[in-house]
Amino acid sequence: MEENKKKKSIGFNIIKNDPTDGHGGFGVGALSLDNVSPVFIDIEEGEAFVDIGAMHARSVVEKGIKFLPNKEDVPNGKPYWLVWVTIDRKLDGPYYAGVTACELTVNREIRRGYKSLPEHVNRMDKSLKRHIIVDHMDDRSKEILASFLKKHDHKMWDLSEQKLKDDLNA
Question: Helix, strand, or coil here: 68?
Answer without folding.
Answer: strand
